[in-house]
């Protein structure tokens, strides 16, 4: 009998270091971080403020170049790609959700969700945007602008926008950090359900132990290292 093929690792970090300049001199943010996330795996990243959690996501997603070490996204060496190449690699395959929502203020909820699908040249972006807003309970609010929505509603728009492109990998940086307890639970429930449905991998940065515990495994950071 032929052995099953191992699951592809959409994300591999090998001895990644990140040093950034500051008024007081260079600051080591990440120090030799190695991490592999396999297809469909849900990984939470926890640790105190300043431990390098958000920087880990920035480097892993190709938004920040590491000072040393290697990052592979879907098998591609990010260090060998320029900014346009990294953007092309992420397009339609990687999505991000942030604590501060990052919705475009001059676009309606529907337009915010449709925008990345249009960039990815997906058909029926407007219809799919409406479908996704229905799925997160915001069908009646699709014509509203971000300032007309509550924090919980804005985060649900951001979640719909991130998942509408059917990414293979979702990065979520404190996605419930700006929400009250009830909305935080509601958004977390949606995120985990929709990620599981899409069979996407998830890298979740959070301070919430209950939210972290819902992942398949937890990575703890301190002082720029995985501990």
Major sheet: arrangement of strands: 6-7-8-3-9-10
Q: How would you classify the helix and strand content by structural class?
A: alpha/beta
In DSSP terms (H or I, runs of 4 or more residues), the helix count works out at 7
Q: What's the alpha carbon Rg, rounded to whole Å?
A: 18 Å
Task: Please bin the fraction of helical residues.
Answer: 25-40%
Q: Largest sheet, if any?
A: 6 strands, mixed
Quaternary form? single chain
How far is it from the N-terminal to the C-terminal residue, by CA? Answer: 39 Å
Fraction in beta strands: 25-35%
Per DSSP E runs of 2 or more residues, the count of β-strands stands at: 10
**What would the principal axes of the Cα set say about the shape?**
globular
Order of helices and strands: EEEHEEHEHHHEHEHEE
Spans with pLDDT under 50 lasting ≥5 residues? Answer: 1-6
What do these coordinates show?
Helix content is 33%, strand content 25%. With 227 residues, it is an alpha/beta fold. The chain has a six-stranded mixed beta sheet, with helices on both faces. A four-stranded antiparallel beta sheet has the order 2-1-4-5, covered by helices on one side. Strand 4 and strand 5 (76-77) form a beta hairpin. Helix 5 runs parallel beside helix 6 (181-198). The longest helix has 18 residues, at 181-198.
